[in-house]
Structure formats: structure tokens, C-alpha cells
User: Fold this.
Amino acid sequence: MATDTTTAKPVLGVYQHGSAYMVGDGFPVRNLFPSNDLDRAVDPFLMLDYAGPQYFPPTDHPRGVGEHPHRGFETVTIVYEGAVAHRDSAGNAGVIGPGDVQWMTAASGIVHEEFHEAEFAKKGGTFHAIQLWVNLPRSSKMSAPGYQTILNADIPAVDLDGRGTLRVIAGSFLGRKGPARTFTTVQLYDLQLNAGGRAVLTVPEGDNSSVFVLQGRASVNGSREAGEAELIVCERTGSQIVIEAKADSRMLVMSGKPIDEPIARYGPFVMNTKAELMQAVQDYQAGKMGHLS
Assistant:
């Protein structure tokens, strides 16, 4: 039976952050998931931390979070204001600023640190970013770590007939392909819409799709409006997402094919079983994920 590709995805709900905390001393975040118990509804995405916007005064000692490990997934950092410096045990290092994206594949294990970039720290300013965790399927969790620096200039921007702009970070939109390399099918869009603007997106049937509103007010497929730092989550059925901006708005659109495997979490590790988590802790303590010199 043919699939109706024009069926609107029903909206599961609109969610506020479930918790708020400071990561290190440089990243004040509001967590949208997993704090809202949305694992199945947002799979393959694992975590969304919304950092800022918050002003930091000038300092000679960059704020951030020191050496810590990850295994079993990918971290995606999207910077809107400010700048982040990254360094990891695989020898990767880089700085991302406004409009840039850092896509780190922890996979079998990596140790890294993230701090405000030195010049940004010295001048002070507003820090504003998102960190998203993307799960890896069981078959890829122990693959080699990787790292992608995706600069603003490398991200295709599609004009929406004067109503706004959609940047394609991962996946594709209207024939424009995003630069991010992914293990599973993922669409990740940075969307800006003017007040009264409308964007019509088509995603694969069965995708888990959600829209996070950073600024402004918007609705999806006729849902109630979501405001600043609210998440609109769709159900798996259907394939069309109609986003309407009630004010000038900026959003992160996330859609992906569910992995549908067991999820076992312990701090910075996400595996399929508790035994694998115990092994991850042992491997980190034994230095098998490396260390920063």
C-alpha cells in the first residue's frame, strides 16, 4: 500500500525544560530531554541542553568544563553567540563561533574538554548555544571516534521566499545537502522565520520529529504555540511538518529515523546494557579512552 506523503504529523505535546543546571562553570543550561521522559519520542536524539543566552564578564581564565569522557553516541554543539574551544584525546582541536557546529563522534570512547574560547573570555559577552546528543546504533557504538568542524560558511542556507531562512546542518532540504556525516538518517535544520512566516517540511514517514523554539513563538501543524525554550514533539505517523511563526522566531528542527534499541545511560556513557556501561567505566579508569596532556 502506498504511503500518503502529505499526511501531517500529529503533535504529541509541547514541553518546557525539565531541569536546569550549570555544566562546569561556563555553560548554564536548560534541559529539554531526557528530563521530560521523551526517550522513545525523540529517538535517535538523546539529550538537548539549551545554554544561555547569558552574559559573562571578561576574565583571563576561560570558563567551561574540563577533561571528561564519552562513549556510545555523538555530541553536536551549535553556537549562536560566543565561541567554544574544544580539545580531545584523539588529537582533535578547534574553535567554533556564531553559526558554526561541532560534531564529535565519541563512539568507542574519547576524552575531551570544552571552554569559552580565550579571546571571547577576555572580552566577555553573551554565550548562547545548544548541545544535542545523537545516539549511535549498537553496530556503531564501538567504532572509531571522529570529529567534524562544520563552519557557518559550509552550511547551505535556503531562502524561504522572503519569509525566512533554513540552514541545512544534516540531511537535505529542497535538494541542498547538509555537510554533517551521520550514522543514521538525520535531518537537522537551523530555521529562522519572520512573524507570519510559514515553512512546510517533508520528512520520512516514521521519523521522530521535534521543533525547539529558541526565540519567538511558533506552532507546528496547528499545535498550541510554543515560546522561548519550549519543545514541540510530533508523533511518528505522518510526514509533513508545517511550522508557523507568530513572531520573529529561531528554531532547531530535529528529525530522525528511530534506532529502537535499548538505552542504558550512566553519566557520559550511553550504551545498550548495564554490563556495557560497567565496561565503559572500567575502560575509562584504565586509560583506554586516552587522556589530555
Remarks:
- The radius of gyration is 19 Å.
- Confidence is low (pLDDT under 50) at residues 1-5.
- The helical segments are 39-42, 118-123, 274-285.
